Amino acid sequence: MKLITMTRRAAAASLLAMTGAAIAPAAVAQEDFPTKPVRILVPFGPGGLADITMRLAAEKFREILGQQFVVENHPGAGGVAAANELLKAEPDGHTLIVMSNGTTIATSLFETLGYDPQEQFAPISTLAWFDLGFFVNPESDYEELTDVVSYAQENPGMLNIGTINPGSTQNLSAEYFVAVTGIDANIITYRTSPDILAALIRGEIDLVFESPTAFASAMESGQAKILATTGSQRNPSLPDVPTAEQAGVEGYQVEGWNALWTLAGTPEPVIETLHEAIVEVANMPEIQERFAELNTRAQPLTPEEMAERFEADRAQWAQVIEDAGIETR
Questions:
Q1: What percentage of the chain's residues is helix, strand, coil (to nearest 5)?
Q2: Is residue 317 scored above 80 in pLDDT?
Q3: What contacts 140, CB < 8 A, 6 or more positions away?
Q4: Which CATH number belongs to the domain containing residue 211 in this structure?
């Protein structure tokens, strides 16, 4: 009986040692993360805001974590191409994806998106935040955003608002503006930002929803005038331009963001390491200065805050899509 007890103890000790040996490499691997180049999948083409900001950050990530961070462009409607590429990867943090407020729109706009970001992916942090601008023709009588609202209230159905394609952030921001202010206006969609600018110059439309970056040259040349921005705080590159709420449109706020996510099931220590790197990069003066030049601001969120923000935006845009009667695809 005593021999059996000793044998069981020896076996248990041996098993514990083996288990410890099995666990140790995994723990070390997590502590040493990353152990190879990290891929950042961008669901947009090269040269866009998400692409530029992520490439700026990728170089800083390399300096902090000691591995290359390689930006790959996988453009496609609803981010499907990039999402499918991520789903092929291992949940070890070596493959990341850029998610945006556009992703929250896509979850409601596409009936069969093909992936569930909230179930299959794990949030790390936001990196870049940006807003839209309310633009008018400089020769118009609109001096403030409330002038536009007043005109629409006094002339139902006469205000023409221009945006790019239906379901875009710009387009839904216009729909949301109409809903918040209770005005009767026409939202006219165009293929590209230059098309919208041409229509504004011709006087076909009264108000445009577009990013200050896209209309930067138009502002400099005097072809377009910005009355306000849509964010929660003033655009750092446009300190004299009020937000919509500051301009008198209470309850209206739209902010775009780009964030990094990875596969669900990625070890928490890896996500923590990536989050800490993002926080460090976002607080770098050179990054803040460069982002400001791009009409964006660097601001991280915790993974928990990121998940909450995603759900809040998803619910908001789902309601806007439903109220506007926009057909899902």
A1: 45, 20, 35
A2: yes
A3: 206, 225
A4: 3.40.190.10
State the pLDDT confidence band at 312, using cuts at 50, 70 and 90: very high
Contacts of 132 (CB under 8 A, 6+ apart): 169, 170, 173, 209, 210, 211, 212, 229, 230, 254, 256
Average pLDDT over residues 5-25: 38
Q: Which structural domain range is residue 110 located in?
A: 36-130+255-324
Find the CATH number of the domain harbouring 276.
3.40.190.150
In a domain, 4, yes or no: no
| Locus of tokens 């209230």 | 153
Domain count of the fold of the chain: 2
pTM: 0.81
> Which is it for strands 69-73 and 38-42: parallel, antiparallel or unpaired?
parallel
pLDDT per position as a tens digit, 69-120 = 999 999 887 889 999 999 999 999 999 999 999 899 999 888 888 899 999 9
Q: Considering 212, 229, 246, which residue would you say is the last residue of a domain?
A: 229
Block residue for tokens 């050179």: 286
Contact 296, 128 (CB under 8 A): yes
pLDDT of residue 31: 62
Cβ-Cβ contacts under 8 Å for 88 (sequence gap 6 or more): none
Take residue 300 and report the two structure tokens written for it: 């991280």
d(CA 83, CA 81) in angstroms, rounded, equals 5
